[in-house]
Amino acid sequence: MRENYEPDLAYIHHVGFDSFARGAVPFIVENVRRFGNGGRRVVDLGCGSGLLARQLVRRGFDVTGIDQSCAMISIARGQAPGARFVCGSFLDVDLPGCDAVTSTGECLNYLFDGRVSRRALKQLFRRVYACLDPGGLFIFDVAEPGRGMGPAQRHFEGGDWSILLTIDENRKTSTLTRRIVTFRKAGKLYRRTMETHRLKLYRSSALAGDLRSIGFRVRTVRRYGRMDLHPGHVGFVARKAR
C-alpha cells in the first residue's frame, strides 16, 4: 500500500476543500432518517479529516471513520473527538454492525491500496451488506469514465497554501491520474511536496448491478440534495432489505 494524503496535502484538503463534505451531510442525514431503519450508527469509509464525521456527531450520530491516510486520521481525531477512527484500508478493516455506511468524495476509486478493483469492490459490498442491520443504507459516490473532462491543469490557493493540479484520464485503461504539487507555508518560506493519485473509473450501471446481485435495492443520484455532482461523478443510495 502506498501512503498518500501525507501531512501537507491532508492539511490543505482539510482547510481548503471542505465544501463537498458539508454539502453531502444534509442529504445523508435526510436519507438515513427517512429511508433507513431509524438507527444512528454510521461507518464512514475514506473519512479523511473527519469533516463528515464531525457534522454527523453534532446531529446525534454514532460514527466510526476509516481512512488509509494516518495524517488524515490524526486531523480527524481532533475535529471529531466524539467519533472513533481507524487508520487502514477499507479492504481490510473490520466493519462494525451499523445502520448506515457512507463513502463520499470518490474514495472507493482511489488506488492507494493496489488491490482495489471492481472485484475487490464487490467483496466490499458484500461486507457492507453483512454489517448493515435490516433496512440499513449504503450511501457512496464514485468517479466514472469522463471524470477527467475539463482543464488539464488547475490551480487553487488559500491563505497559507497553494496547489497545482494536473489531470490525465486514460480512456483505454479507465484510469484517472491526478498529479498534485503543494506549497505550504512553513515560517517565512513555503515547503513544496508532490503526490500522484491514481483512480480506477467505474461505470455506475456495472456497480449498480453488483449491488443488486448482493441484495441491495439501488438508486443512483446526480446530486446530493442541493449540491450537484460534477460530470462523471455519480452517487448511490443502496438499501438492505428488511
Query: Roughly what percent helix?
Result: 25-40%
What would the average pLDDT be, to the nearest integer?
96
Any idea what the radius of gyration is?
17 Å
Strand content: 35-45%
* CATH architecture label name of the largest domain: 3-Layer(aba) Sandwich
> Which CATH class of the largest domain?
Alpha Beta
Find the CATH superfamily of the largest domain: Vaccinia Virus protein VP39
Q: Between the first and last Cα atoms, what is the distance in angstroms?
A: 37 Å
Note the run of SSEs as H and E: HHEHEHEEHEEEEEHEEEE
Q: Which strands sit side by side, in order, in the main sheet? A: 3-2-1-4-5-13-10
Instruction: Quickly give the structural class.
Output: alpha/beta
Specify the biggest β-sheet: 7 strands, mixed
Large-scale geometry: globular
- Total domain units: 2
Q: Which regions are unreliable across 5 or more consecutive residues at pLDDT < 50?
A: none
| Total beta-strand segments | 13
Tell me which oligomeric state these chains represent: single chain
Query: What is the fold-level CATH name, i.e. the topology of the largest domain?
Result: Rossmann fold
Count, helices: 6
